[in-house]
Every structure is written in C-alpha cells, then in structure tokens.
Design brief:
123 residues; four-stranded antiparallel beta sheet; seven-stranded mixed beta sheet; 11 strands; mainly beta; 51% strand
C-alpha cells in the first residue's frame, strides 16, 4: 500500500501561482512513477502531469504545458506541482497518484490515490 496526502491548494486570482505537494508513505516512493490529475465539477478526471521514478522523464497535458512543472524529491518522498499563470479553467480538485509503470496517462492505470486538494482560480 502507498498512502498519499496532498496539500497546497487554495483560492488564487487568475495569473497567480500555487505549489501543490503530495507526501507519500508506505512502500518505497522511488518504486513509483507519480502523476497529478484534476477533476472539475461535472467533468471526468483528467491527466495533468507525470514524472518517472528517477525524475528523468516528465509528461504534461497540452493545456498546462509551459505553465505547470512537476518535480519530485525521493529523499523527502514528495512530489510537487508548481502551477503558474493560473486560469479560471484550472479550477478543480487536484489529485496525486502513483503507478508502478511509466507511459500511460489514464487514471485507470494509477493504483494509489490521494484524497485531493481544491484549487480555485478567480477571474
């Protein structure tokens, strides 16, 4: 089992920034690729960003490329999502997730999930 706890969400004006964190516990953190997903009201959960186990590879949804940056610290067993130039359409609950393989960005491929943190961007 891997337990994931997100933090860092909140209310921010359009154009602002937030940094989300997700702390892991349980099985070795470095065994897992990590992803961030988000879900807005009435919409399906969607992929935002992912980072490989060693942080050698990253992938981003087109909607956040150039604005969001995913990173991880395997010593601190934490994955981060730096979000800049936020837009109202970024409003959603953000979830971090863990999977043992790399290369699939679908939510169904991720085995472990956090409880989510709310991000609200006002216009």
């Amino acid at each position: 089992q891997v337990q994931l706890v997100e933090s860092g969400g909140g209310l921010v004006q359009a154009g602002g920034s937030l940094r989300l964190s997700c702390v892991a516990s349980g099985r070795p953190f470095s065994n897992y690729a990590m992803g961030w997903f988000r879900q807005a009201p009435g919409k399906e959960r969607e992929f935002v960003a992912a980072i490989s186990r060693s942080a050698g590879s990253t992938n981003y949804a087109d909607s956040v490329k150039g604005r969001f940056t995913i990173s991880r610290d395997n010593v601190k067993v934490t994955v981060y999502l730096q979000m800049n130039s936020l837009r109202p359409e970024d409003t959603a609950v953000y979830y971090c997730a863990a999977e043992s393989t790399w290369g699939d960005w679908l939510p169904r491929s991720y085995k472990y999930w956090g409880q989510g943190t709310q991000v609200t961007v006002s216009s």
